[in-house]
Amino acid sequence: MNILEQEFIKGFMRMCSDGFMQGWHERNGGNLSYRMKEQEVQSIQSAFSYQRAWTDIGTEVLNLANEYFLVTGSGKYFRNVELNPEANIGIVEIDATGTQYRVVWGLINGAVPTSELPTHLMNHAVKKMTTNNLHRVIYHCHTTNVIALTFVLPLKDEIFTRELWEMATECPVVFPSGVGVVPWMVPGGKDIAVATSEKMHNYDVAIWAHHGIFCSGIDFDATFGLAHTVEKSAEILVKMLSMTPHKLQTITPAQFCHLAKEFHVSLPEKFLYEK
Ligand code: 2HA
Ligand code: ZN
């Protein structure tokens, strides 16, 4: 059995390359994690090594106890993942208390998981609970146009959601619950992990002001597609604002309601305010 032949590893690596090609992963920017299925763990567990030390996560994720995650490495470049997976990504096991992890495969030469591990794991913990175990992918990327917008739009969930929805008809269908906005915070620790995971109770997308986005989804396609849709919409908004600060016409709340009915999605009232 070859670990690198596993479908979930191939999907993970393809997503890293796709994100790099979008321009969202300059240098070591961004990180990705995947919560493995039990049968995926079983099928490759014989190749795991349990020699490496347990390390504090820096937060507690009790409902992820004993689970395994495929993660990108700290300081590693997305563009290098496909070239040398064992050096740039790895599998970590969470201990029985949900407070420690250890590397069981990959991340060779003493490499460690992403500096955003606390946010990834706290988001997984929330999504495992709120999606009835369905969501498995958490993705962080430095999406250029979303970041640009965090300098000119008020950092409010209602405003970002509504502006992004208005820029492309498919947006309310792709992210009907909306997007959350986390104000600027120091990355890489528990505080930003707590703030982000609070947003993940309501949304599948959390924007980090002046930094990037976090997305959650059931698989690599859905999660990458979500980031792609949000960033495309942000790009249209940046273009529109570059032409004029005023829209001559847009999609109205009544039209969003019509769309929601036809596409069988429910859109929270708080985003359908009259301007
Ligand atoms: O460098 O993106 O947020 C990795 C990051 C930290
Ligand atoms: Zn980042």
Descriptive labels:
binds Dihydroxyacetone, elongated, L-fuculose-1-phosphate Aldolase, binds zinc ion, 275 residues, alpha+beta
Q: What is the CATH fold-level name?
A: L-fuculose-1-phosphate Aldolase
Domains (count): 1
Low-confidence stretches: none
Report the order of strands and helices: HEHEEHEEHEHHHEHEEHH
Q: Overall pLDDT, averaged? A: 98
- CATH architecture grouping: 3-Layer(aba) Sandwich
Task: Please outline the major beta sheet.
Answer: 9 strands, mixed
For the termini, the CA-CA separation is 59 Å
Q: What compounds are bound to the protein?
A: Dihydroxyacetone, zinc ion
Helix and strand content put the structural class at alpha+beta
Write out the strand line-up for the largest beta sheet, numbering strands in chain order: 2-5-4-3-1-6-9-8-7
Summarize, please.
With 275 residues, the chain is α+β, with helices and mostly antiparallel strands. It contains ten helices and nine strands. The protein has helices at 7-22, 38-44, 85-88, 117-130, 144-149, 157-167, 171-174, 190-200, 220-243, 253-262, and strands at 31-35, 55-56, 68-72, 89-94, 100-106, 137-141, 179-182, 205-208, 212-217.
